[in-house]
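Q: Could you fold this chain for me?
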Amino acid sequence: MNAVTRALSAALLALLVAVPLGAHAQAFPDHLLKLVVPFPPGGATDALGRILAKKMGEILNQPFVVENHGGAGGTIGTEYASRQPADGYTMVLVNAIPHTASRKLYPIKYDPVKGFTPIGALGTVRYILAVNNDVPAKDYAQFTQWVKSQPGKQNYGTAGVGSAPHLAMELYMRAAGVELVHIPYQGSGPAITDLMGGRIQAIFENVPLVPLIKSGKVRALAITGKTRSANLPDVPTFSEVGLAAFDMTGTWGLIAPAGVPPERVTVLSNALAAAIKDPTVRDALIAQGIDPEYGTAAEYGAVLVRESDKWGKLIDEAKIKL
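A: Sure. Below is the predicted structure, expressed as C-alpha cells.
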C-alpha cells in the first residue's frame, strides 16, 4: 500500500467513525427521561409535574416518567435526584424558596445551588395575607394598626416551620414592623381550617386560599407580586397598600444534577419553553396558582443564587430551626 492509498484509507476510516459519533451526539434524548417530584403522589406539585412531564415527553418524542420521592420538606427527593448521572435524563421540580432555604434547615448532603444544573423556570407563585372573618380589621391598613396596638397577642398559622408561608410571614413582619406569634401545623390544610374556625387570626398562603376568599370564608388583605392577580383582581398588592419594601414570589423550575453538558441543557430548556406555551399546561399552571413565565437556564440559576442568599440571611436572623 503506497502513501497515497494509506492516506485515503485513513481519511475514509476517520469519516466512517465520525458519522455515527456525530449522529449519536445529536440524538439526545434517545431514551426514557425522568422527572423527580420531591413530594408524595396526589398533591398539587405531583399534578403539576405529571402534566409538565407529559407535554415535554411529547415535545422531545421520548417517554417521560414521574418519580415521587417525598419527605423532609422535599429534600429526600432532591437529594435522590442530585445523585443521578449528570446526563440530562433526570430532572427535579422545585420551588426556589424552600429549595434554597433547605441548606439552613435540614442536614442535607447537597448544595441547593452548586449541586445542580439549572434547566429553566416555568413560573411564579404568589402569597396572600389573609385573616379570619372575626378579625375587626377590614383592610390592610386597619390590620397593621390593630396588630401594632397589641404586639405578640395575635397568632398566625403556617404549613410548618421553615415552610415558604412561614418564611413569607417572617419577612413580612420585618418589613411591616409588626409582631405575631407563629403556630406551625403539619401542612396548610389544618392551618387553614383553624383560620376559618377563628383559632388563629392570620395566615400567609397561596392557592388553597383562593376559593375560600372568593366564597367569603376568609378575608384577603394583600397579595405579593408586581401586579394584581387575575384570580383575585379585587385584592391589592403589597405595593398598593404602602409596603413596597415587601415582596416575594416562589419561582418554580426544573434543575438537574450538576454537570449536565450545555448542549443538553439547551435541548431540555427549549422543550420546557415550548411546553409552557401549550394551553393545557398554561391552564394547569394557573390552576395551581402559578403565573406561567419561562426563564432560561441562566435566569433560573440567578434566581437560585439570589434566593439562597435571601433566605439564608433571614433564617439566621430569625433563628428558625426545625
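A (continued): Residues 29 and 62 are 7 Å apart (CA to CA).
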